Structure formats: C-alpha cells, structure tokens
Amino acid sequence: MADVAPRLNRFAEQLLGAPLPVRIRAWDGSQAGPPGAPALVVRNRRALRRLLWKPGELGLARAWVAGDLDIEGDIYVALDLLSGSVWERGEDARGLAEALRDPEVRAAVRGLVKLAGLPLPPAPPREEVRRGRHLHTRRTDRRAISHHYDVGNDFYEIVLGPSMVYSCAYWGSPDGTLEAAQHDKLDLICRKLGLTPGGRLLDVGCGWGSMAIHAAREYGVQVVGVTLSQEQAAYARKRVADEGLTDKVEIRVQDYRDVTDGPFEAISSIGMAEHVGAERYLEYADQLYRLLKPGGRLLNHQIARRPQRDESAYEIDEFIDAYVFPDGELAPIGTTVTQLERAGFEVRDVESIREHYALTLRRWVAGLEADWASAVNLTSPGRARVWRLYMAACAVSFERNRIGVNQVLAVRTPESGDSGMPLRARTWGA
C-alpha cells in the first residue's frame, strides 16, 4: 500500500502544530497535501534518518545536498511557503526536549522512527565543511575563501555570466540584461568613489577582476586588487592582460591585513566584508582607514541582516555556514556604520539596494538551471544543488526583507573638515 506521503504529512502537522503548506511526494509514489502546491519530494528513508539524527535546518540541508530531498515545482514558491515552518525551524536540544513533552509530538517522532528505520546516522555529504574553533585567522580565512571560490572558474562562468561579477547588480529595469546591470553597478561605485585618472584604487576582495578592469579602463586609475583565491587571481590576471591593462592593474593573492603600500585615494570592498566576522570588523575598518589618504573614500558594499531585539540570541545560519560561506557572518547595517565611524570614517551615504539583489539572484539561478548538466560535471551534483538552494533561498529572503544589501560611502575626512564631497552628492556625476 502506497501510504508513506499521507503518514509523513500527518507527522509533519503534528510536529509543526499546523498543516504543511506544500505537498509531499514519497519514494513509494504516494502524495499528500494541498493540491497544486509545489511538492517536497522525499526520495528515500535516508532523508528521514538525516532529519531524525539532526533535527532542524542542518538535517534538511544534508538531505537536500545528498539528493535525498528535492522540490518539485516552482522553487521560489516552495521556499516562500516553507519559510518559518519546517525549512527554517531549527531546534536546539532544549527546544526539542520541550517539544517532546507534547504527546502528539512524541507520537509523530515514534512514527518517523518506525518509518525511517533507524540505523547509524548517514555520513554528511562531502561538500560540508565543519566550523573551526578559531575564526578569522589568516589560515581559516584562506580555507573558507578557497571552499567557496575555488570551485572552478568555468562553474562560475555558468552562474555569473560574462560579467563575472559576484555581487548585487544595479538594475534600471527588471527586464534588463545581467551584464548591463553589473556594468551599471561597477560604474556607480566608481562615481561614488570619485575616481580620477592617475589616482590609486585598492579593490579588497577583487574576485575575478571586473571592478579593477572597469576602474582602470573607464577612469584611468591605478588599481591593486587583492584576493585569497588562487583561482580568482589567475583568472583576473589573464583578463587584465587580455584588456591590455597590465600597466594599470596589479592582482595579488594577499590578505587585506597584509597590504602595506598605501596610501590610496579610494578603496572598494564589494561583497567581501561578510567574510570578516564581527570580532574582526573593527580591525578591518581600521586597516582600510589607515590605507586611505586624508580625503580618500571607501565604498563598502555589504549584505546585512535584520537586527534582533536580543542580539545575544542571534545564531549563524547552519546551511550557509556548512555548505556556502564557512565562517561568514552578517551584521545589521547600523552595526556596520557604527564600526566604520569608530575607525574614524565619516559616513556620507548609505544606499539600500535590496530589491536589486533579488533580481540578480534569480538571474544567477536561471543561468545555473539552463546549463545544469555542465555545472554538475564541473563540480559535483551536491555542489550544484547547494548553489541552487542557496541562491533561490537568498532571493526569497531579499524579496521578503529578511536580509538586505547596502552601499556605504565613507570618507577619511581630514582635520580641516573638508570632505571633498559635492553638495548634492546623490547625482554621483551621472
């Protein structure tokens, strides 16, 4: 009798105290749940064992990456429906113990154990990284960056497209091209920084060299780009040579903390500060302040999370930490601004471009899905699944205002108080 899905649906409702908002399709072919809704596909009993041995988000993530769970239908709709329920409801040991006091919950767990058959816990997928004890040392940062970025430049070409820019684009219209929106983002940053021919720009976390190339080619500046990724650096150097810009752009494999050849007129940090960590953020801001000339500008482009009433209760996202950005941390925008000001910067402008990142992520997901077989061959099925889930889930989070992204323009204002900023800065010279 094909009855696994109805049983799972009933267990889920007992555990959550509310109906599951998506359908369930189980390995025996049975289905249950709201007609027409996307389906959570449970491919085997191992998916249940992963959830029982590691309740909450990490167990779900392991099942997804291993291919034991899947989503059938619109992934964005499914993730939106699941938000705040089983997909994002991690239970720590105390929370689970409290939940098990409910007879219905205990009955549901017993039913799941019986259905799963409970031998030893399945090994985590090989794509998982364990969080280290010592965060944000030079060694652990190199390891974290290598895990995320040294996946293969060919894979990133599939996801990012020809622009090879791995940060939020700047859209004039949702119908525009990704390449045009990334060009406009880079140009906006150059204008905010007030780049002029002959000046020096430090691009912290330079990625595949797109910002460095754009600034040197379009604004005539001398650029030093630093990254911890060997693969990114090799790719960026080739692009620089192909553009005939080797006299203007230097790409280094170097920790930003080890840059000593300032001062620079401008510094861009685009999608890098998320890797710094809360304990190291003031050190990061201090270092960039020291590297700027008086009157120099910093453009800090960074993802932000919503603040919590009790910040001490904030927990790292288990899926992101284990599979996407090991040791990465998001801070509220207010915290970022405060830390920059503590380092001595005068913050002159903060621009939220949250909706722009949702559009960008949807384009990246479309690129990945359009060439899925190649992406799998270049990495692994698990890695491709990590990226699809991560980018789609982040798109929903940006759309629902659970996370945001901001460009913060700050100046190392000299003692004279002359910031060098125009009276109506928001035109940015456009």
In round numbers, the mean pLDDT is 89
Shape: elongated
Measured by DSSP, the beta-strand proportion falls in: 15-25%
CATH H-tier superfamily of the largest domain? Vaccinia Virus protein VP39
Helix % is 40-55%
Characterize the quaternary organization of these chains. single chain
**What is the name of the CATH class of the largest domain?**
Alpha Beta
Count of DSSP H/I helices? 17
Given as residue ranges, the uncertain stretches (5+ residues, pLDDT < 50) are 86-96
Main beta sheet: 7 strands, mixed
Q: How would you classify the helix and strand content by structural class?
A: alpha/beta
- Termini separation: 68 Å
N to C succession of SSEs: HEEEHHEHHHHHHEHEHEEHEHHEHHHE
Could you tell me the radius of gyration in angstroms?
Answer: 23 Å
Overall tally of domains? 2
Tally of strands: 11
Under CATH, the topology of the largest domain is which?
Rossmann fold
What strand line-up does the widest sheet have? 7-6-5-8-9-11-10
CATH architecture of the largest domain: 3-Layer(aba) Sandwich
Family: Belongs to the CFA/CMAS family.
Protein name: Methyltransferase domain-containing protein
Active site: 394
Keywords: Lipid metabolism, Methyltransferase, S-adenosyl-L-methionine, Transferase
